[in-house]
Every structure is written in C-alpha cells, then in structure tokens.
Amino acid sequence: MLVKKSFLLLVIAVAAIITAEADEAEKQFAVDLDPEKFAEVIGAGNVFVKFFAPWCGHCKRLQPLWDQLAEIMNVDDPKVVIAKVDCTQHQALCAEHEVTGYPTLRLFKLGEKDSVKFKGTRDLPAITDFINQELNTPSEAELNELKADKEEDATNEIVEEGNTNLGKVVELKEDTFAKHVSSGNHFVKFFAPWCSHCQRLAPTWEDLAKELITLTSVTISKIDCTQYRSICQDFEVKGYPTLLWIEDGKKIEKYSGSRDLPTLKAYVEKMNGAPTDGGDNAADAANEVAKEEERDEAKKLTPQQLSGETEFDKTIANGIAFIKFYAPWCGHCQKLQPTWEQLAAEAHASSSDIRIAKVDCTAQENKQICIDQQVEGYPTLFLYKNGKRQNEYEGSRSLPELQAYIKKFISHDEL
Known about the structure:
Layout: H1 2-26, E1 31-32, H2 35-42, E2 47-52, H3 57-73, E3 81-86, H4 91-96, E4 104-108, E5 116-117, H5 124-134, H6 140-147, H7 149-160, E6 170-172, H8 177-181, E7 185-191, H9 196-211, E8 218-224, H10 229-234, E9 242-247, E10 250-254, H11 261-273, H12 278-297, E11 304-306, H13 309-316, E12 320-326, H14 331-350, E13 354-360, H15 367-372, E14 380-385, E15 388-389, H16 399-407
Parallel strand pairs: 1-3, 2-3, 6-8, 7-8, 11-13, 12-13
Antiparallel strand pairs: 2-4, 4-5, 7-9, 9-10, 12-14, 14-15
C-alpha cells in the first residue's frame, strides 16, 4: 500500500513538472532552432538568431527582451523571424557561425551568404534600430503610408494654421511634435515601420481619422519611433504600437483596449467629452514646481548625468568615478535609483574626489560609450580610478555594500 502511494505521488510530481515545463515553453516566443530546422528557416526568410548557453548570465538577462522582441515580430508573414540556438546542444552549428562568446546575435538576410553580427547595446531601441537599418525594404503597408505622405504634409500645413482635423492622420516629426501636442487633445500612435502589429493597425488608424473628421477638437496622429527615438523615450514607449492620449502636452493615459475601429472611435469620443478638472491640473503644476525647486536645491548631491564621450572621459580621468549604465525603462535600474541618489549625496559629503554618475545607454550620444565600455545589460556598474576601469561590480546593490566597495579604492576612513 505504501509503495502504491509513493508511486502515485511520484506520478503526480512528474506530471506537475511536465505541466510547468509546458507552461514555460508556451511563454517562449522565439523560434528554437536545431541544425536541420536552422537551414530550413534561414532559407525561407530573414532571421535574427541569438546563439546562447543556458548557464550564461548575460544570456539570462537578455532573455526577457528577446522574448518581447519575438512576441512583436513573430506573427503571420513576419519581416524577420526572431530565433535562438542553444550552443550547449548544437556546438557544431555554433562553431560554423563563429560563435566565440555568449550571447552572440546574428542577422541572416534572405539570399545572402554572410550574416551580420549585432554589436550594439542590448536594449530594445538599439536592436530595433539595427533591424530597421539592415532590413530597409519597405512593406506594402509602409509603401501605402509613404504614398500618403504628400497628402499628410499638406494636412500638417493646414493644421499649423489652426484646422486641427481634416480626416487625415497627422504625421509628427521631431520639429513638429512638441508644438502640435502642446495644446488640445491628441490620440497618438507611436510605431515602427517594420512592426507587423503596426502594419495591421495602419488602415484602421487612417479610417479612425476619417470617422472623426467632424470632431475638430482632437487630432489622430502618429510618430515613427525608429526616426525620432528621443521623443518616444520621453513618453516611455516600450513596445509597438503604443497608443497614448495626450492633453495639452501631458500624457493622460495609455490605451490598452481593442484596436478595432468601433472601439477606438468610442474611446476617442469618451475621452474628448470627459470634463477636465482644473483644480487637479493646478495641483499637479504646483507639485511639479515644488519638485523642481527641490531638485535644484539638491543638484550637487545627485548622480551626475553624463552625456557624450567628452563629458564621460573628463569625469573618469581623475580620482574615483562610480558609474551606473542604465536604460530608463529598466525595472532593476528604477529600483536602484533611490539608493544611487543616496550614495551620491553621501559620497559628495565625504570627498570631492569621488563622483557618482550615470549614463543613459538609450540616448544616441551615449550609444558608442556603452559599446566601448562593453555594457551588456542594465544596470551595469563600473568603478573608474584615475581613468582605469575596474572589474564590473556584481555585489549587493544595498547602500552599505556599495559604500564598502568604494572604500576599497580610497584612503579615507569613512565614505
């Protein structure tokens, strides 16, 4: 009887493990390739492959982003397939493609013998920029959008003169975005031309503008995040398409409903008719002013935001510089931020030779810095002493541990 019960428990445990593995497998959006399937997939279209090892720390850090990219891209008739190869299982295949470290990311273009190795920072904007630049053949949907450009430019000119809705989608650019959204109500689509979900939404978005031609108090707009990254970063766009409702230059909310025409139209009509509470807006403005004054007061005690190679080189040249390389959308970076601020304040109080700084790796002017410093995940913490970079800090991110780490490189008794 005891044997039977033990056997039953074993069967239940095995079933639970199999179910858990099946559930985990369902969450994997990237195509898993072996040597036989590799040749088949590469021969059928463009493929972006992650060569990895399951034990590799950098590979584990990249996995959520890779799955996010695959979820966006791996749809019907994709422009590029997002895939992966486990090099511990397929060593010969990885050796054939000159994989010498993990992860290695290679783009295989249809009809081309040699692949292109991705060498940039491993964040979504940098990777999507790479895909967009390498695969610049426009899709049918893109061609339709390009065809409408001249008409939209004409619309934009009239919009600038005061007519806010002519049944056309207003295409926004870096030099027109801020002015356009600064007053009034706006429903804005943040997109990437290569994104299949964006391509599917494009005709519906055009129809939405036509349906709302008489609703002159709101505009239906769009902006290409592959061309105007800084604006999309300012609005914390992390995936495509992102649909935001903006009032008087301020993001009110992110639309998360169905993307069919009736639902989108009902949403715009609801938002456009919703009363605004001037008191709340005034309170928000007052709070923002107070926060700005507080930031100005504590400016010397906060981590220095480095921008560009000149400022970076100057900061690390002498003394000790402890630098956080980060991305604004990174959850771990956001969690570390208050501790990093406190570390900067206490370091400033103890010594003028210690600088606590940070580098936004998604900013265009910092892209090369992060590549040169071999930043492969966020946040990455490097300490520099008189211009020389030390090993990456991989300890606890608590304030006492960070302070103790800095003490190793200075002669002071206390930080």
